[in-house]
Amino acid sequence: MRALFIVNPQATTTTSRARDVIVRAVASDIDLDVAHTEYRDHAKELARQAAEEGYELVVSLGGDGTVNEVVNGLLGAPADLPRPAYAALPGGSANVFIRALGLPADPIEATGAVLEGLRTGAYRTVGLGQIDDPEDGRYFTFCAGFGWDADVVQEVERQRRHGRRASPGLYAGIALRMFLKGNGLRDPSLTVQVPGRDPVTDLYFALVTNTTPWTYAGSVPVQPTPRSRFRLGLDAFAMTRLNTVTTANLLRQMVSQRGVPPEGRGYVSWHDQTAFTVRSRSPRAFQIDGEYLGHRKRVDFRSIPKALRIVG
C-alpha cells in the first residue's frame, strides 16, 4: 500500500520527537511518503494531490483543522479518480473528530489502533456535513456554529497568532468572558429552518452537528446533540434564551453522560435531517470544525452520507 503522511509540525500536543516516532512506526508497515504542512490549506492541497497521484491511503497528524483540510482535499479531487482511504492521528488540543470515531486521544496509542486497523482491514464509511454554497462548498466533519462558539473560535485564532497556545482552558476562559460581558451575544438574530417546516426565529446561538460530542472539556464530552451520529443526517441545536440560569443549566446537561434531552426549556433541537438553513438579520461569526470562516448572514447545510472511507 502506498500512502502519504501529512504532518502538521505546529500540532499543539506533539513534540518533534514524538512525531518522528509516529512516522517511523507507520513507515515500518507501509510504503510511506511524508509531507509537512507549511501554511494554511496546505494539507488540503497535499491531500488532493495524493488522490490525483494514485495514493491508496492518506494519514494525517494534527488537530481538527488539519483533519478538515485533508477531508476537503480528498473530496475536492476529481470525482472520476479513486479516493484514498483516510487515517487521522491526533495532534491538536481537542481532536474532536478523531475521538468521536472512538480512537484514543493519545497519538501513540491512536497510531497503534490505526496500524492494527490497516492489518485487519478495519475500514468504515462515515457521513459528513457540507456548506451548500456554490462559492464555498466546504465539508465539515463534526460541527458548524453560528454566534457564540464562532466568536470564541475567532478570538482563539487571534490569540494564537500572538503566541498563545490553544487549550481547552483557553477556549473555556474566552467563552466565559464573552458571556459575562455580552459581546453582542445577546442578540436573538438567528433563524433556523428545515425544509418543509416553519422557521424557528429569534435564536441566540445555533449549532449544526454531524456527530456527538460538539467538543470536549478536557476528557469530558460536551453533548448538545447526543443523538447525532456519523451514519445519520445532521442535527442542530439552538438557544431561545441566553441568561445565566438557562445557560448554566444547559451546560450542566451537556457535560452529563446523557447530554441535553431532545426537548426542554431555553433551547430547540432537530435530529437526523438532510438539510438546514441558518440565517441572521445581521452578520454573525461562523465556524466549521473549529475554524473561523468570517461573519455571514446565511449558510445552507446539507448532509452527505457515506462520504469518506476511514481506517480504524
Automatic annotation (TrEMBL):
The keyword Nucleotidyltransferase does not apply. Keywords: Kinase, Transferase. One of its GO terms (molecular function) is kinase activity. It comes from the Bacteria. The keyword Phosphoprotein does not apply. Belongs to the diacylglycerol/lipid kinase family. Residues 1-135 form the DAGKc domain. Transmembrane segments: none annotated. Its cofactor is Mg(2+). This is Diacylglycerol kinase family enzyme. It comes from Spinactinospora alkalitolerans. PROSITE patterns: DAGK.
